[in-house]
Design brief:
By secondary structure, this protein is an alpha/beta fold. The protein is 39% helix and 13% strand. Bound molecules: pyridoxal-5'-phosphate. Residues 20, 80-82, 106, 152, 156, 184, 186, 214, 216, 222, 227 line the site of pyridoxal-5'-phosphate. The site of pyridoxal-5'-phosphate has 13 residues, from helix 4.
Length: 374
Amino acid sequence: MYAKAAGLPNQDGLIHLELGQPAHDTPEHIKAATIAAITAGHVHYSDLPGIAPLREALAHKLHTFNGIAVTAADVVVTNGLTHGSFAAFFAIINPGDEVILLDPYYPQHVGKIELAGGRAVPAPLDAEHGFSIRADWIEAKVTARTKALVLVNPSNPTGRVYTRGELEALAALAIRHDLIVIADEVYEYNVYGGQHISIASLPGMAERTISLYAFTKSYAMDGWRLGYATAASDILSAMLKVTANDVTHVNTFAQHGALAAITGDPAVLRHMVEDETAKRDFLVAALNRMPGVMCPLPQGSIYAFPDIRGTRLASQTLADRLLDEARVVVESGAFYGAQGEGYLRICFGSQSLPTIKEAVRRLEDFFNRQITRI
Ligand SMILES: Cc1ncc(COP(=O)(O)O)c(C=O)c1O
């Protein structure tokens, strides 16, 4: 939808709620530390897995926040989570291997699985119960070729934060079938009330989980391209072979900015969560007043995933009409897999509250005029 909107001859007044790009600026202390690092001459190659103080700080965070007991030697700094997942798929996939994605899924994982010679296999989430995990439905997709499964928690696009029970069922399945779990936890701090649990912290999971993180959403550092990964040492050294060969390492002075982020005042994260909560609450309440729309409150991520089946329009048709008639850009749920048909993905994290209010005004106008209540 971004490409479609960008192709319109008139860009005036378009409101973009399709991209998951944080609305905030990167906090000043992070920028200052990066500028100071340049001034101090941190402009040369760093250690391939990343600068030692950053990896030490990340190991501490992984231990205390995520419950994953690691040392600095178990951490590799990556160019955003995208690069971490690229390294993960290239490290573990042999040609023809299958990787299970929970549908609706984050489509960018598919491209990397296929580039690495694997096959992405969608397994449905339980849409009628808040897109929860049904381990038996996932297990039905396991074959002799299944190598791994990808867990995005909190979920993009559904906004679900998986419960301990769901994660335990998934962990039991992974152990039973000797699968690797690739845990994309880019939204670990975008949690509104509930508790985020890292699957690697469950018994027997640290050795079979590749846990992936980024500074992207939590510290509004999407353009910096900073992430990190931790996994068992044999998997991590295979991932390091990939990262050392494709990018050598991550920009040295940007890593100093990341160090300032991870060791800085956690109030930054609290403020981000407060702001996102206010925007989420406003958007979701408004969506639920629109004819044909039902939207549960997402517990995590920066997306609302309203059920629009009551409009009797296909997701893509509705997204296209909202672009043309309301000049609001949202994503069709079908973009995220077969289970996403009948839904839209609307990002509340990428704009300010006043802009979201204007988008809602236009959406209400569209729905009240165009959609018959059923
Ligand atoms: C689930 C998920 N994983 C990964 C990414 C990409 O993260 P990064 O920008 O750190 O590569 C995104 C960005 O929207 C995402 O939603």
